[in-house]
Amino acid sequence: MMVKKFLIGVASAGMALTLAACAGGGAGESSDDASSTSGATGGSEPVAEGGLVGVAMPTQTSERWIADGEAVESGLMELGYEVDLQFANDDIPTQANQIDQMITNGADALIIASIDGTALASQLAAAAAADIPVIAYDRLIRDSENVDFYVTFDNYNVGVQQATSLLVGLGLLNQDGSEGDATGPFNIELFAGSLDDNNAHFFYAGAMDTLQPYIDEGTLTVPSGQTDIEQTNILRWQQETAQKRMEDLLTSTYTGTDTELHGVLSPYDGLSRGIITALQNAGFGTTVADGLPVVTGQDAEIASVKLIADGTQFATIFKDTRKLAAQAITATDAYLAGGEPEANDTETYDNGVKVVPSYLLESDIVYADNIQSLLVDSGYWTEAEVESGVAE
Ligand code: BGC
Q: Which of 134, 285, 311, 330 lies most in the core, judged by the most C-beta atoms within 10 Å?
């Protein structure tokens, strides 16, 4: 089902490419719709001329990267490209070797979702020397001149949405953004992603900018005192590490005291499930209705979507990987047709050496009551998958 679903998503991207080319190309000004394309500028329209594209993904332990990899691969193949798709088990030397190999094998373009955004300098220099365009996929590659384009979501806004969903769960806000009935004060704990992933910093900045006014006025308190990303980050986004940190926080700050815990900011569904396990094991209840703190998330992973439907996890952020894959394909095709992809942001993503032209997509907050409209009606997950919590 996964594979079929992504083929459908990418088929429509491919069709849109063809249509855009017929219409003179250069769509993409329109929207972040899956069927939109940034097209090529510079006089040439995207034409499938074949070639080899290396696609480097970080890991298969999270379903989103498998979906991303499959969607990019099948969409490129549909346009007549050969694809070398590799996953690196979250191991930096493995990813570096895979990219070296892609260059040696004659890749004409590289699409890279990095593990450590600063660790690929020599690979990128080799790519530049061989005139191979490099597209950073979802995660910015830092500290290098040799990154040509970046496709991603509005990562700061993802963080704002994560914090907003926490405020909604606590009753301080309503889903429409208006003020909620609750007044607090509430106790929360904070988690951030992996420090070597540039996105983790954007998510946390967006979330903290949103929560800070509530902390300043005393509506929210962080009883552990751990608010700095140096204290809250989880290396490589590991679920077990998040579970362990939550257990440690309970022991140090909550167990045997009368301090209550009402909410936890979590930036990724895998971490959320580790946090929820720690809370459930400590006797907080199985659902929010029976005492489990409000826990946020990201990625709309199927196991978490089921937990949201069950009232266990409170929310997640849906980033449609089909749309991201479609943008990566459009950008690759633009380069290989001799043009340039069209950016919709040329200011935000400074990688330490230059501002990388970017194409940003929008994301949505998923609550129990919009799973159907956001995830099922769009064909991302089926009703049966939401019910079972397993991708078919
Ligand atoms: C991605 C998130 C993902 C996280 C962990 C980030 O770079 O943007 O969607 O949850 O990595 O895989």
A: 330
